[in-house]
Every structure is written in C-alpha cells, then in structure tokens.
Amino acid sequence: MIFGRFERGKSPVEPVTLKILVAGGFGVGKTTCVGAVSEIKPLRTEEVLTEAGRPVDDTRGVEGKRTTTVAMDFGRITFREDLVLYLFGTPGQDRFWFLWDELATGALGAIVLADTRRLEDCFAAVDYFERRSIPFVIGVNCFDGAERYPSDVVRQALDLDPGVPIVLCDARDRESVKDVLVAVVRHAMTHATERRPSVTT
C-alpha cells in the first residue's frame, strides 16, 4: 500500500540542501542570475525605485534600472532526489545589509557578481565574505558594450587573493551561470579541505 508518495516500510529521503549566495553591487545582475538557473519561478522582492530613494541609491551606470531587490531573490535547483541547491540573491544597497548575516548563515559559498564598468561596487561584498571566511568566486557579468579585461587585471583591481576564482559569465544565460556555480562548489570544497585540521599519528 502507498501512503502519499511513500511506500510502507520505506523512509522518505531527506535531501541534503546546499545554499549559495549571489551578491554584488546595485544593478549588477543578481536577480537575473538567480532567475536564469532556477527550476522554479524565482521568489523576488523587487520594488520600484522612487524619488525618495534617489539620495541613497547610486544609479550611476545603471540609469535605466527601475526596480531594486529589498529583501532577497530565491531560486532552487534539484540535482537528484537527495540533493537540492538553494540560491539566495542578496540586496545590493547598503541600507539592506542587515539582512546579509541571516542569508549567509550556513552558506556553502557565494558568487560576487562584478560589472567592469563599476568594479568598486563589489568591494563591500568581497570584504564581507573575506571577513567571514566564506568561500566565493567573482563572476564578471559581461554586459553588452562593457570592456572586457583579463582575469589578472580584475584580480589586481579588486585586490583578491590568488586562490579566488574569477569566471567570465552572462547572468542571462543558464549554461553560463551553471559554470559559475560549479566554480563555487569546487572552490568551497578546496577551501574546506585546506581548513580541515591534519591528523597526526
């Protein structure tokens, strides 16, 4: 006899859940990135930009942006029955930073999206993850019309440690974003191995 989706005598599978954050400056493509790979319709908490927020919202370089994330974006990828990845897009503006600590709890790692036209906008996210020893990769979102730079130039501009991966990507493209996610997981595994205490006999 079957009760719901489970056969009698069989325990339901408890999936292993992984969490990855998608961070970066205002208008860098975080919402787009989450939406590109999520298997479900992403939960979005976007609000229209208003005149009241103009003094605190720096829209230089993204003058055409009309909305902003005020809490988080949420997406999901199921790899198999027992392995699920959750994606959390963080708000990009300083006034919503109080949410970051809650979102970062239990995170496997993070993507810091960068726009080469406004690299300084991701300094704060890089600093946040470095201070908390959360492994992260830089995803350089290649906007149309933006100049392309070699990875070593981006690394120097962001003052990154040599071990931090830098991946060129298109936040609109599913396969491109998947490549960045793979880089995060690999980097997180390396990070965990390096921090694991060695066993002496």
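The record above closes out task 2.4. Task 2.5 opens with a second protein, given below.
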Amino acid sequence: MLVLAFDTATPAVTAAVHDGERVLAESTTVDARRHGELLVPAVERVLRDAGVALRDVTAIVAGAGPGPYTGLRVGLMTAQALSSTTGAPAYGVCSLDALAYAAGLAEPFLVATDARRKEIFWARYADMRTRVEGPSVDRPQDLPGGLPLVGAGAAMYAEALGTDRLVAGAPEHPLAGALAALAAERLAAGAGAAGDDPVLTSPRPIYLRRPDAREPGPPKKVTA
C-alpha cells in the first residue's frame, strides 16, 4: 500500500505519503490564497522525500471538505487528474474526519473549522474515528455545548464558545499525515471497494452552501 493524500479545504495546503504503516513524508503550508500554486509542488516534494514515484502510488485521497468552493476544487480535481494518470483509485475523506483523527481523543468532542461569514463548519464525534453528527454549518453560538473543541474555527470563536473547551495541542487545520493514516486504516480494513464506507468515499466535494461567485443575471432593461 502506498497512499498519497492531500487537503486544500482550509488555509492549510497539506500533502503526505503513507505506506500502510507510517507516514513517509509530509508537507504543510498555511496560505489561504495559493492553493492552486502550492499543491502540486507539495505533492512532488513528499513523493521525492519519501523516495517513491507517482507511478508507485496505489491510492489517492483528497480532503472533501466542507470548505470554500475554490480550495476544495483544487484538491479534488487534482486527485481525479492523478487518478486518471496513474490508474490508482481516488477517494475523498471529510476534512473534519482528518482533524478528528489527528486529535486522537477517545471521548466525545466537536471539530470546527472556519466557514467565513462569521460561521463554522463543524461535526460531532464519539471518538477520533466515529462521526455521529454533521458536517454542518452554523453560527458559533448555535454549536452544541459542553464538549471539547478542536480546530481553527473553535479557536477563532473561543470567547463565544469557551476557552476552557479548547483541546490543548490539537491541530487547527487538517494535516495530510493524519488524512493518509486514516485512509490507510480504512483501506486495510477493506473499505473503498464497495463504495459504502462512511469515511472513505468517492472524491466529491462536501458543499454546505452555494459558492460566493455566481453567474451574472440578465442585463437590466434601460428605459428612457
């Protein structure tokens, strides 16, 4: 097994290679405006650092969001293009699942990322592997209370959500090493073949609202 994973659903452009047992190489750059510019060099870098070639990859995994339309499109289109080039199957994993997995918690908690517009993308987990609610998009004050919080969305609105709920040391953004490890774990368990796995899915974006950019409407009539 050789998994190439990457995520562009948040400001972090992150890529990693996993051999089924451990992360061989990982690269992460936080830059919300340069997803398209940074992703391919990051993929090339982790392949080189891992000492493997693209043709050796047996599975390609992209973070499926939720996230901004433009960032998600970069990662998922790249996954589909690389799949067509190599013949390796492409999969999607909810980016919040990758964050939850990286948090490593064995108790119920929430994962939250920035959804802009003063809102949060979030999901509730029974433990690091089990999502039980979401993903959803809501205002910070509408999130379920009383549970530990992981992610940049929680940190951004810590005053409203409660600073005591933030999990110390947990990553703010999805990291490709965790994404690759989670995918490798699911693949080793036989997921992906039937297409009905709750974690490892088809590489399709999770959009929870319409993109900001829209087609212009018909021109207004000019009257004298």
